[in-house]
Amino acid sequence: MLSRDVLRDMERQVGTPHVYTRPADLAAYGYDAYGASGMRRLAEAIVFPASTDEVSGVVAVCAAHGVAVTPRGAGTGYAGGASADGGVILNLCRMTAVRALETEAQRIAVEAGLVTAAIHARASAAGLYYPPDPGSSTTSTIGGNVACNAAGPHTLRYGTTVDFVAGLTVVLADGRVARLGEGADAPQLIPLLCGSEGTLAVVTEVLLRLIPAPAARATLAGTFDDMDAASAAVAAITESGIVPAALEFLDRAALDAIAATGAGDVAPGAGALLIVEVEGSSSEVNGHAEAVRAALVQSGARTLDHATSAEEAARLWKLRKSVSAAVAKVQIGKVNEDVVVPRDRVSELVARSREIGLDNALGVVNFGHLGDGNIHTTFLIDPRVPGDRLNAAAAAEQLFETVLSMGGSLSGEHGVGTAKLAFVERQLGSDQVALMRRIKRAFDPTGILNPGKKIPARAPVEGDESEAALEAAGAR
């Protein structure tokens, strides 16, 4: 338990009302979106800073006392990365300011706690565009997006969060503030911090590049008998030379969930839905839309919709955006894994995931970013049923084994957290993991920043206590 002196020092930094220690408050932060797995971890305090200076003060206090610090945004992650065994959860939700919107320079400076959708809205109002749009954009924060290098439907054409980060303000493990990127030092460190899941520094402010809003946009959707036909349509679009802005899919189980909950209109008997969006000049969009339509028809589309207005496009996108809520209504619990496989093996992965679900007596839903092979495989559980959570854990392990055997990746955008730690060395190899540990020690010598996440702990070696001691530091 944190001493009264430590708590008092943190209260001096942020004010007494912004330090929570009551058991009920700690329990509320004992999990993130991965909580359906049954994982619960209790911190010793939840601290709510309102500025970079306050974050710096809190981290400095924790560093002086050897207290672990777990940065947290909205808790929308599915990997257990924002909960903590002891120590302090540093919640940045009070830091929501837009520092500057520079229309001519095409960039926006914001604090880490700002919800991603607010950035989309501010950019759009200025005639600009911020493409990264994770499915949780109405609730996730930009700091969390940077920490996990979030992606979303428009990754295929535009890239992930890191491709739009021009500058960062971060608090280091000893409480010092560093500014990286445009007008600051060491811009080459930005890609290292994006996706580091709070293990190297605490992101407090972000400078984002924006681009001009596309002059025109077309959204098409086609249903198919099965995933093989949908994958054939993707291949046909690729062969045409078009790079869509978005290329999303839902499998039969996802469509069934939407139909069962009335979340959208689904063609009866559809085995897969493909949503394709193209952007650019009016002439480009018209030509690309016709080519996409031809590819969908050629691949056996059962139904075909071509949105001619923003309202019609929103109706088509509603099917994709409503799937998580629909699944939650069909079954009260879910364990959502995001994995990546080569695009030509997506259909194979979907089929294998269904077999895994059957093997473990669980329903399974697949949806995601077919254009870049980033698939959200969701195992449905009822936490009240004995064994369901254990079955989901076994199913996840089988899924990871399958993904690695296909030459894929454990995570596309949700991060490693604690959920995938056991498989990291299998994917990356021991040399890369050893390098990750060295980088971690360089940034965080005493190991207080989000310990136990992202980077697997090294197995102890007899007679070598130095690295084990570093990894154990701050684990209170």
TrEMBL record:
CC cofactor:
FAD
Which region ranges are annotated with the description Disordered? 454-476
For this protein, the record's Gene3D superfamilies field holds:
3.30.465.10, 3.30.70.2190, 3.30.70.2740, Uridine Diphospho-n-acetylenolpyruvylglucosamine Reductase, domain 2, Vanillyl-alcohol Oxidase, Chain A, domain 4
- Keywords assigned: FAD, Flavoprotein, Oxidoreductase
- Cite the SUPFAM superfamilies for this sequence: FAD-binding/transporter-associated domain-like, FAD-linked oxidases, C-terminal domain
Asked if Cytoplasm is a keyword of the record, the answer is: no
Q: Does the keyword Transport apply?
A: no
Q: Which InterPro entries match?
A: FAD-bd_oxidored_4_C, FAD-bd_PCMH, FAD-bd_PCMH-like_sf, FAD-bd_PCMH_sub1, FAD-bd_PCMH_sub2, FAD-linked_Oxase-like_C, FAD-linked_OxidoTrans_Type4, Oxid_FAD_bind_N
Q: Domain of life here? A: Bacteria
Q: Which GO terms describe its molecular function?
A: FAD binding; oxidoreductase activity
- One Pfam family, short name: FAD-oxidase_C
What residues does the FAD-binding PCMH-type domain cover?
A: 39-213
Its recorded name reads FAD-binding protein
- Organism per entry: Candidatus Aeolococcus gillhamiae
